[in-house]
Amino acid sequence: MEKRLNIAKNLTLLENKKEGWKELYAKLLKFDWGLKTIVFAGPPGVGKSSILNYFVEKCNDKTTFLLIDPSSSISGGAVLADRARFKSKNNSKKPFIRSIASRGHHGGTSFSIWPFLRLFNSEKFEQAFVESVGVGQTSQELRGIADFLIVVLSPESGDSYQAVKAGLLEEADLIVINKSDREGAERLKSTMETITKKEVLNISAKTNKNIDKLESKIKESQTRNDQDKNIAETKDFATSLFLEKLNKKIKKEKKLNPLDFEIDI
Amino acid sequence: MAKILIAKIGLDGHDRGALLVARELKEAGHEAIYSGLHRTPEEIAIMSAEEDVDVIAVGILSGAHMALIPILIEELKKRQINKPITFGGIITKKESESLKDIGVKAIFNAGTPLQEIVKRIEQIANE
Fold it and tell me: Does residue A121 contact residue A24 with C-beta atoms inside 8 Å?
C-alpha cells in the first residue's frame, strides 16, 4: 500500500505542477518505454467504461486504468464518474485506477497524461488502459499516446458520411461497435469496414459477446517504438506547457497581440 | 480547487443526493470523484489513496452508518491513509456526537443546503 500511496502522491505532484515536479519528470524521462498504452476513445455514452470494467476484473497490479472526464469550461470543476461503473473486485492484486479531469485540454486527454504514463512506466507497470473524454472527430493526442487505439462506437453512431470524414476513425487501430445486441450493429459494421478499410469488431459489454476477441486483439497488438513515442511526447507536452502559460497570461493581461507569441525556438 | 471522493458505502441504492452534491462541487470549481454504489469501506480507503483526494465525503442512507463509518476509519488507519471524512445522511444528534468523537469532521443531516455542504467541505480541504 505504501508504494501505491507514493505513486498517488507523485501523480498529484505532476498534475498540479507542485514544487519539484520538473525534477521528478526529468528522472522519469530516463526510463525506456516498457509500458503498453491502450486507449479507448469514442463519443460519450457508447460504453467505454463498461467495456473497461471487464479488463479491470482481468488485470493485475501491473496495470493502471487512467480515466479522463471533462472539466467544466464554466467553473473549472469536474465530476469524474468513470470508475463508478466498475464492479467490485475481490482480488488482492488490484490494478491502480486514477480519475483525471481534462482541465481544459482539447484533445480528448489531459495536460498531465504524458507525465502520468511516464510515472507508471518507471514503476514497471506493464499496461495502461486510458479512457478518453467522450470525443469523436478530432483527437490527435490520443494517437500520440496510444500503442493501440480503439475507437468505440454504438449502433446509433452514425452512417457512411461520418465514416468517410477525416478524424479519429482514420487513426484507429481497431473499431469496436459496442451494444451490438441492438439493431443496426451489423449494418454499421459493414459500412465501417467498407469505408474505413479497418478491422471492425462487434461486441457487447452487457452480454460479454466477443469481448474475449477484443482481449486477444489487445494482447496481440504491438507497441510503437520509443522514438515515435518520444516525438509525440515532446510535441504534446511542450504544447501543453506553452498553452498553460499562455492561458495564465491571458487571464492577467487583457490586451495582447497574437503576434507576440510568434516566437523563435 | 479541491479533490473530493463522493463515497457510497454498503447496501444502499440511493445516490440522487450524492450526485447533487457532486454537481454542486463541480459548479464551485472542484473535482468530485464518484465511487459508485455498494462499495465496501476497504474499497473506499483504496480509492481515496489512489485518487489522492483531499476529503472523503461519505453518504449512507441505509441506516448502517454507525456500523460502516468506524470500519472505514479502521481501514484508512490500517493503510496509514490520513484523510478527513465527512458524513451525509439521516442521523440522530447522539449518533452525530459519537461520529465526531471518532474523528468525522462534519455531519450533514438531511435538509442541509447544498451550498453549506460545499463551503464546509472547502474549509476542511484547506485545513
Answer: no
Query: How many A×B Cβ pairs under 8 Å?
Result: 79
Chain B residues within an 8 Å CB radius of A1: 49, 79-80
- Mutant choice from B15, B34, B76, B78 vs A, greatest count of A C-beta within 10 A: B34
pLDDT tens digits along A191-240? 999 988 999 999 999 999 999 999 999 999 999 999 999 999 998 899 88
Helix intervals (H) in chain B = 16-27, 41-51, 65-78, 93-101, 114-126
ipTM for the complex shown: 0.92
Tell me the C-alpha distance between A60 and A67, whole Å: 17
B28–A11: do the CB atoms touch at under 8 Å?
Answer: no
Alpha-carbon distance B109 to nearest alpha carbon in chain A (angstroms): 23
Distance CA B2, CA A21 (A): 19
- Which residue carries 440522530 as its cell? B92
Residues of B in Cβ contact (< 8 Å) with A11: 52
Cell, residue B100: 465526531
Nearest-by-CA chain A residue for B49: A5
Q: What is the pLDDT of residues A72-94, one digit of tens each?
A: 989 999 999 999 988 877 667 88
Query: Which among B19, B31, B46 is the top mutation candidate for probing chain A, defined by the most A β-carbons within 10 Å of its own β-carbon?
Result: B31
Q: Sheet of A127-131: strands edge to edge?
A: A96-101, A63-69, A127-131, A36-41, A148-153, A174-177, A200-202
> Which A residues in the span 75-134 are in contact with B, Cβ-Cβ below 8 Å?
75-81, 83-86, 88, 94, 96-99, 101
Provide φ and ψ at A152, rounded to 5°: -100, 130
Using the structure block, give the residue that is written with the C-alpha cell 488507519.
B77
In terms of Cβ atoms closer than 10 Å to its own Cβ (0-12, 13-18, 19+), residue A131 is buried
Q: Which residues of chain B have pLDDT under 50?
A: none
pLDDT tens-place string over residues A228-245: 999 999 988 998 888 888
- The grid coordinates of residue A175 equal 473499431
pTM, rounded to two decimals: 0.93
